Amino acid sequence: MASDPKRQIRCAATLVSDPDADRAAAETADRLSDRLEGVGADLLAVFISAHHAESAEPVAAALRSKLGPRALIGVTGESVLAGATEAEGRPAIAAWALAGAPLDIRPFTEDDLPPNPADDPDAAAGALGMDTTARATLLFADPFSTPVLSLLPAMDAAASAAGVPAAAPIFGGVASGGSTAGEHRLLLDGRVRDRGLVGVTLAATPNADVRIDSVVSQGCRPIGPDLVITNARGNAIQQLGGRPALAMVKETLEALGDDDRALLERGLFLGRVVNEYKDRFGRGDYLIRAIVGAEPTSGAIAVNDLVRVGQTVRLHLRDADTAHEDLALLLDGQKLHGPPAGGLLFTCNGRGAKLFGEPHHDAAAVVRAFAPPEAGERLAKAGKPYAEQPTTDPERAVPLAGFFAGGEIGPIGGRPFLHGHTASLMLFRHA
Question: Which residue in 254, 285, 304, 431 is a FRET match for 203, CA 20 to 30 A apart?
């Protein structure tokens, strides 16, 4: 049955780069209002560059006054993005609005959680607004005051206890751009905080036709075979496949070609399989963590994660070409489902021009992936074969916004993790 046109979800996004925060906020509100064409915003996500962190409260107030969203959530970041543009190192505000969505929006902060969420998953689920109707949870956190690494497993346990569908992702990012505690800002409706966390759980109302899909591009590719950890303690792996771990690593590296060996300058990574029950492992099955040390005497290697005996792992490499390829392949898979109504993108502050050597890479890749092709008569040129090329015309682009995070939150194998050097993407579609 076709969806009721009156209930069609729609999204709008915009980015305003201006050193004057008040002026940028006013222009952002006007643009979004025009693009929504009088439709009220259900959820408004606001991303404020660190340059405007001190003005976060009046910025949020101006947007709420103009757009009247049912809920507003926001965060400050080193840089922000919207459409195909990443405003790296520039004062800017990016904003994204979701309208016409048959969703129940349930806000929360760390004040709502029990003292130790891991010890009481049922209470945590209630505080997070998680139940069988949940479709996604969006979370922003301050790195100086929020233990995200321990929080995410507690949220995962709460979701499981509440019967949240496995396809409902936990997404978001860690605030960036500040060098000391108190410099970041987190926004939730009329509140502006400099610590803790803010979040919203999006739950389906009866007969809801909204689907929220996830893309988590860790920017790595595997090398060598899958290996099983046969001896480990804490973050140290003593043996892989019954042999000293360091010897197995050296054996894999010796088989690399010159081009791959050059990538070792960017580090060596270990991918840990999240779901061991699969018959085969491919992209999206490995949680990537850095190898941070080795002990030649014992033959052990250390990774920045806790490991245990029996886990399947594989070595990985990362560079700009690999990161580009990984994101492109994952987006190709999403194109099978058709263009989304809109999306939120949380990319690492170590990506962007720092990694790719040119601006706008991740945002432009998402926009290009879903942009409709230009008409053939506009693309055909005398003496040249016809070829369809996607457009990044803002009027034809999927509404996208987000920020450069100090850690990206997204699912691997159906479970939420904190990542680095990753692009984490939420896509909103009609079910």
Answer: 285
Which structural domain range is residue 281 located in?
Answer: 220-317
What residue type is assigned to position 144 of the chain?
Answer: F
Domain membership flag for residue 159: yes
Q: How is residue 119 written in tokens?
A: 């010890």
The answer to whether residue 181 sits within a structural domain is yes
Backbone dihedral region of 189: left (phi > 0), alpha (psi from -120 to 50 degrees) or beta?
Answer: left
Say if residue 23 is in the same domain as residue 170.
yes
CA distance linking residue 425 with residue 408, whole number of Å = 10
Query: How do residues 107-130 score in pLDDT, each as one tens digit?
Result: 999 999 999 999 999 999 999 999
Q: Which of the four pLDDT bands, split at 50, 70 and 90, describes residue 396?
A: low
238, 308 in Cβ contact below 8 A?
A: no
Portion of the chain with pLDDT greater than 90, in percent: 81
CA pair distance 425, 390, nearest whole angstrom? 20
Cβ atoms of 158 and 117 within 8 Å: the answer is yes
CA angle 289, 305, 320 (to 5 degrees): 10
Return the sign of the alpha-carbon dihedral for residues 270, 271, 276, 279: negative
* Residue 393 pLDDT level (bands cut at 50, 70, 90): low
> Residue 375 pLDDT > 70, yes or no?
no
pTM: predicted TM-score of the whole model, two decimal places: 0.90
Q: What backbone torsions phi and psi does residue 153 show, to the nearest 5 degrees?
A: -60, -35
My answer on whether 230 and 170 are in the same domain is no
- Strands (E) across 153-285 are located at 170-174, 186-188, 191-193, 197-204, 210-217, 220-233, 236-240, 243-244, 269-273
| Residue listed under structure tokens 């090398």 | 223
pLDDT tens string 413-425: 889 999 999 999 9
